[in-house]
Amino acid sequence: MNPLRSASTLLHYRPLFSIPHSSSSSSSFSTNNLTRSTMETYSKDNNEPKKDQQKETCDNNQSKKVSDDILPHILNIYGSRASPQDFEIYAPNASFEDPLMCAHGVKQIKSAFYSLSKVFKESKIVEYTLEENVLPNGTREILIDNKQYYKFMGRNIDMISLIKLYVENGKVIRHEDCWDKKPLWNTETSKVPLVGKLVEMTKRGSMFATHAMMGFGKDPTT
């Protein structure tokens, strides 16, 4: 979310989308006894979510709380209403990556999301389904299949996304935002290492520019 580049990219992006009532994402890993699907719809005249439906089955209350504790902060962060406390969900060395930038550490993640309000008059996650899995190494994987809404210079921009959160000891260690649910390009996913390296360098450059513009992760004054 480099402020200028992200606005330009989103304006030309505008994919057609359909948000299913259950997550279409699947994991090749085994899952815990936890399945959760939640759909919330926001009114454009009201920032408070209107819950359309919620289905939960859980045999482990402690497991259920992982996504319950993290999700409200994610909604605040994407809704341009984040407070410093919302970023406490991240581990100190957490990383964030989307098609435009790659952030390392909480301060860079703050810069990435604080910049949203500098560019867009409005931003929020308007609909989502949620799935939580337990990977073989014990890491929690939270998949948020979602629709995002942005308002830029009077224009409404809609985008679908798959947010992937990886959680250890109650803290997010990795946050990925896959636009149109497409895999991210980096050195690990690119079939051509040189291309992946160039993409990664571009993302880091974009992150550095945003980080500097946002005061290197400085929290806004109230």
UniProtKB/TrEMBL annotation:
What superkingdom heads the lineage?
A: Eukaryota
Query: What InterPro entries would the database entry show?
Result: NTF2-like_dom_sf (IPR032710)
Q: What is this protein called?
A: Uncharacterized protein
Biological source species: Ambrosia artemisiifolia (Common ragweed)
Q: Where is the composition biased (Basic and acidic residues)?
A: 42-58
Renumbered to this chain, region (Disordered) spans 41-64
